[in-house]
């Protein structure tokens, strides 16, 4: 049973099968994300990251397991939690004909944000979107859309933020700027962040703890520094490759058990 009301997220035994006969997309996932922490979900294509985030948001019904988000059981009380959560995903397109300001206003109303115009101006200033507010969302570059999506995800000052590939289409300079911004925002707001990313440098920089998924299962976890030490590597990219290619950690490679596992 999960009872951790003080956690931002407490997940136990979370499982998703899209088809009864097929392989599960997520299997028996359990973790507790503390309030105010940033954790990462790592894994190759098809590992189950997006499926996990969709279940955490109540967009997909789990086949098994339980989710407590900000102390609310998502199976019975999801709207209380969702009002204090938000997300950003490259898979969700903003209505193209609405301007950036109109898009943000729709979301501000959906979340019942007090003084919505003021909040939008504040976010636009913080995320350097002021010059884009009157532009139709459909005319923006991929990088500009990503920054607007980030503003959308913060409109209700969430206590729990789920970010799927938040810097995927950003150039290195803007990506770095967004990462610094997210670090500062988390520190100032106390918001907990769960981040799915293929960018190892991003995960290493932002995340206190990383869950590594392969074929829907957590195959390893730990802080970036603990993973680097366990795998005897200098950067998380090499750790990711060791796990994806089933080469094992440093001890397993040394005694040859990784080759037997693969
Ligand atoms: N709607 C769906 N119906 C059936 N299977 C699905 C569906 N969505 C995802 N899957 C399967 O579930 C598994 C996990 O997919 P998911 O999109 O969660 O992975 P991911 O880690 O987000 O991958 P990526 O890094 O490519 O975005 C994959 O095998 C995928 O084919």
TrEMBL record:
<keyword id="KW-0547">Nucleotide-binding</keyword>
<dbReference type="Pfam" id="PF00005">
    <property type="entry name" value="ABC_tran"/>
</dbReference>
<dbReference type="InterPro" id="IPR027417">
    <property type="entry name" value="P-loop_NTPase"/>
</dbReference>
<keyword id="KW-0536">Nodulation</keyword>
<dbReference type="InterPro" id="IPR050763">
    <property type="entry name" value="ABC_transporter_ATP-binding"/>
</dbReference>
<dbReference type="InterPro" id="IPR003439">
    <property type="entry name" value="ABC_transporter-like_ATP-bd"/>
</dbReference>
<comment type="similarity">
    <text>Belongs to the ABC transporter superfamily.</text>
</comment>
<keyword id="KW-0067">ATP-binding</keyword>
<feature type="domain" description="ABC transporter">
    <location>
        <begin position="9"/>
        <end position="240"/>
    </location>
</feature>
<dbReference type="GO" id="GO:0005524">
    <property type="term" value="F:ATP binding"/>
</dbReference>
<dbReference type="InterPro" id="IPR003593">
    <property type="entry name" value="AAA+_ATPase"/>
</dbReference>
<dbReference type="InterPro" id="IPR017871">
    <property type="entry name" value="ABC_transporter-like_CS"/>
</dbReference>
<protein>
    <submittedName>
        <fullName>ABC-2 type transport system ATP-binding protein</fullName>
    </submittedName>
</protein>
<dbReference type="GO" id="GO:0016887">
    <property type="term" value="F:ATP hydrolysis activity"/>
</dbReference>
<keyword id="KW-0813">Transport</keyword>
